[in-house]
Amino acid sequence: MGRDPKYDILFEPIQIGPKTARNRFYQTPHATGMGTQYPAQQAYNRGIRAEGGWGVVNTEYCSIHPESDDTPWIGARLWDEGDVRNLAAMCDKVHEHGSLAGVELHFGGANYSGYEGRLAARGVSQIPSKAFWMRSCSAMDKEEIRELQGFYVAAAKRAVSAGFDLVIVYGAEASPIPLQFLMPYFNRRTDEYGGSFENRARFYKETIELVREAVGDDCGIVVRFSVDNLRDDDLGIRVEEDGTRFVEHVDHLVDLWDLQVGGPTLSEWLVAVGASSFRQENWQRDWIAQVRPHTTKPIVGVGRFTNPDTMVAALRSGQLDMIGGARPSIADPFLPAKIEDGRIADIRECIGCNICGGRVNQGGAPVVCTQNATFLEEYRRGWHPEKFSRASNSDNDVLVIGAGPAGMECAVVLGKRGMRRVHLVDAESELGGNMRWITKLPGRGEWSRVVNYRKIQIDQLPNVEFIPGKRLDAEDVAEYGAEIVIVATGSYWDGDGTNVSSRLPIDGANPQAGNVFTPEQIMAEEQDVPGPRVVIFDSDGYFMAAGLGEKLAREGHAVTIVSPFHDMFPYLSFTGEAGHFRGTLESLGVTLIAGHVLTEIHLDGVALGGSDGRTASITSVEAECVVLVTQRQSDDELYRELKRNREALAREGVVGVYRIGDCVAPRLITDCVFDGHRLAREIDSSDPAVPLPYIREHRIMGASDEYYDAILGNGPAIA
Length: 719
Fold this sequence. Notes:
- The radius of gyration is 27 Å and the shape is globular.
- By secondary structure, the protein is of the alpha/beta class.
- It contains 24 helices and 28 strands.
- It folds into 3 domains: 5-361, Alpha-Beta Barrel (TIM Barrel), CATH 3.20.20; 397-490 and 635-681, Rossmann fold; 493-633, FAD/NAD(P)-binding domain, CATH 3.50.50.60.
- Strands 3-4-6-9-10-11-12-13 form an 8-stranded parallel β-barrel, surrounded by 6 helices. The chain has a 5-stranded parallel sheet with strand order 16-15-14-17-28, with helices on both faces.
């Protein structure tokens, strides 16, 4: 099809110091959970982004010294020559596709755990960490400052040895030591490194100078800098004050500015990343645009760019010179290539759910993506996001029952693997399963991309057909004529009030009584909510209760949300949305009651008890209506019946019956999408119900370096 000329600007080369990026797409540094501990997966994952057209591909934050140990979180490291070898593998993979490789040098001070090395942290001033309990630091004297700057220099030289093209001096998201020197929030010094702007900027400037001298002409120097911390006080950085002032102060030392808005401290980093529930595409524009008159160097910025028209506008307006992307590059590593090939409709757009960062926030777990099930499976499972081998049993017909996220993903991958016919059947008239109504909740509109992308793919695949409005029973399945049957019938919200705290039903919970409702009854069935007062009981802890509370409050109801958790909506804290939703709900007059459970439901209200053995401070709430957001149950009745009748199915030519998604166990959308993808990738294995083993990248006692080199060199088979 070819590239639309209006997007030509996105593919113009750009000079970054001594290096030239082949286009304007810049994969910004972001965590994966791989670091230098899983070098092959790191290499393949970043290499896929280079293959997909990202002109610059960066590591995650890269610790420069054992004092900046972030265990259990896994980042990159440049502590020694072993780390150089491991990161060199990433550079090689990135260079294979003509892209530049960058590394983000990081030292966290008191903002990092020290759990592995158990070393005391050095910091700007002696203050306790807000990110880690019982963690503080020593205030550096000048000798220790020079020693720390030596750590930066040594790491920069190792970066050159590894083959990196760009060295990033990291000062963003309020976590690295250079930014801590600049921010009065951290800096209480009275010497030449504290007080005035020039003094507070001194460490950052000196460090950039030293790193530039260390790498010479071998690498471009990138400064990643938070130009505004979004603080409401004078303790941070404001773009119109210290933000632009710092840019002017060191502009002559910088080859590329990687600018962002964020903070105000490490513990709130995902708030700055911005979920789609409250941050729109290119939301940082107004801050970043203010920097342009203050620099002569190119600027890259972020803002969850997925629309190429928005990207072009950002470049043509002068706001940016390169388009930065972390989450968009995770959701679709081939985003640039699809723009270049004129396949805009095939872009798998980030939905802004922040489940990627949510996993990182849970002790550094490997990143996952709702849209892209292949993320971090490139090496260990051999999954390529755009390549699918023909299944060895492709002469079979497949019946997929249920067109929710798992069923849609499974049908798409089966189609791309060349199965003869794939029928995706659903009792409803539209694709999407529960996503049909979840996307109607406040702040969840962009989640419709989960459905839209897969609908486009299904429409393009001649061997995949969606059949709406058809409810199948076991007899229908047996007579359907498909050799392979996949049940993806999802889950439903329980109506008896069984919850994570008591593990028991709630007295008086009856969704047929007229005063007790499940989320489906309100959203999918659109039943009227009686009376002005509503109690929502939330033992789920994610977005459902918050979304329903906002919806009902905006419709004029007096809403009270009760939760057994110590903090309201705890999973939204992982995705960086809890503060937004708490603030929104409170502004709407919603009452939030944490640490309580519903013990009984009456016609005129509810009785409360304390959760986890605590005494209830509130014993009752008056209400005409109760909404139970407690637990979901798998809708697996059809699968169970089919399993009981396998012999009869075999007589009809059915060779396999499998289940995926919430039908197995209610989970996050990302896990359901993965489940459907995995089964389709392995549909021609000896037993698709049992996942194939994946490469475990770990040290084996007695194995030689040649053993690991062979694994990395040969790589997995792409399936």
